[in-house]
Amino acid sequence: MTDPTQGPEHTGNRGPEGEPAHDPEVLQLAAKIFDLARHGDTDTVAAYVDAGVPANLANDRGDTLVMLAAYHGHPETVAALLHRGADPDRANDRGQTPLAGAVFKGERAVVDALLDGGADPSAGSPSALETARMFGKDDLVALFEKP
Q1: pTM of this structure
Q2: What does the pLDDT look like over 43-87, one tens digit per residue?
Q3: Backbone φ and ψ of 21, nearest 5°
Q4: Any idea where the domains of the chain sit in the sequence?
Q5: Is domain 24-145 classified as CATH 1.25.40.20?
Q6: CB-CB contact of 26 with 11 (8 Å)
Q7: Alpha-carbon Rg for the chain in angstroms
């Protein structure tokens, strides 16, 4: 898996004519919110989402706030975003899901938060289940295959 946190941040939002929204203040705010998710600032991220920021806000690589929080090991932030409607299975532009990222990084508390939020271990490519098998994480393979 590649690190989904590298690269310039853009909201990927479109203006009324379908053109990219390039308002520097909007892009700066989005970059700040992505950083807050990366650093696990749960209360501030939750406040922004409560104020109207989309729970599924994604950067120019398709990495959502949940993906960034999951990849950096912040289960409380993940749970807060899922509680506010974020999609636990939304894959980035490389087909990676937050759950597969958490498996790759060895973040068991994040795995649990995502599963509690409805994440599907078979979603994405490679899926969390495939990632667990690839890295010999037999405990997670057993968890994901449990009926």
Answers
A1: 0.84
A2: 999 999 999 999 999 999 999 999 999 999 999 999 999 999 999
A3: -80, 115
A4: 24-145
A5: yes
A6: yes
A7: 15
